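User: Here's a chain of 358 residues. Predict its fold as tokens.
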Amino acid sequence: MTASHAPGPPVSGSYPQSFVSSPATICASRRRIAGDAVRHARDFCRERFPDGPGFANGSRMTDLSRTLAATADRITIALDAVLPRPQGPEARLFSAMRYAALGGGKRLRPFLTLEAGRLFEADETALLRTACAIECVQTYSLVHDDLPCMDDDDLRRGQPTTHKAYDEATALLAGDALLTFAFELLADPQTHPDPKMRCLLVTGLAKAAGPTGMVAGQMIDMAPSAEDGAGDDLVTITRMNRLKTGALIGFAVEAGCLLGAASDEARQALARYAQDIGMAFQMVDDLLDVEASAEELGKGAGKDAAAGKVNFVTVLGADGARARVRMLADQAKAHLAVFGPRAAVLAALVDYIVERRR
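Assistant: Prediction complete.
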């Protein structure tokens, strides 16, 4: 990272070395950011690192919710360390970027990068920096999705959306800045010493997020059914969500495989796993939009129906969507069989996705 991103803690590759290797430091840093969640992080440190600093290969939590909470804490801390601090005439932009990125969330995509990479003993610093880049892209997409010209949402993660907390122009620029900042992170030699690997990461994220990935899916979602080849059939809805939701989830897993130098067989198995959980995640989202309250979701409920949007529930019906989710969950777990018990956390994540209420 460049010195102009100042002030902040002393950095070595944008993170103090102890930040990525010392459980005690992780816990202490989290305590400064928020309150109650630090208990999850402390438990995570004790269980995942019983022998002190360093990542214990093969160790895992028995309670997935604590694993997810601890990983979300780590990503929040890491983003806090690398995002520009508010200063100068552009301080409002930096403030909005941090508001959007540090405001919580499941951090599911970074979690997938970290867990996939750990299957192949990938370097933890490289995984963490890549995971942060992916989360910056995810956050940018949410900031833009919430704008009045898109989904027009007032709440995100239980808080006012960025354009409500600031203004539309600032939110637009904050999203732009988070997107480009992601590629700055990936292109930095501190992410990986091999420029070829950095190019693979940059190219992969660009494809997942760009006009043949997430942005394409968003365009299909916005297009009236009679325009641009859009339609109300299952094929169109499936394609839309493979691009809008599935593309970034797929890259999150692929990034872990790249950094861990996974075999072709392993990469293919995890790619299929990612495709299935990405589709299941969106189907559950569609079900929650119909069945959950705004309080449960932390954002507006019933938005698709109010906007007249077609989704998996309107095409398959609620029962049909649930049946399809169960089928995808079974398939996703089957793809992990090649890894045996090493993939237990990824297998447990399937159940979390299916059973979540927000």
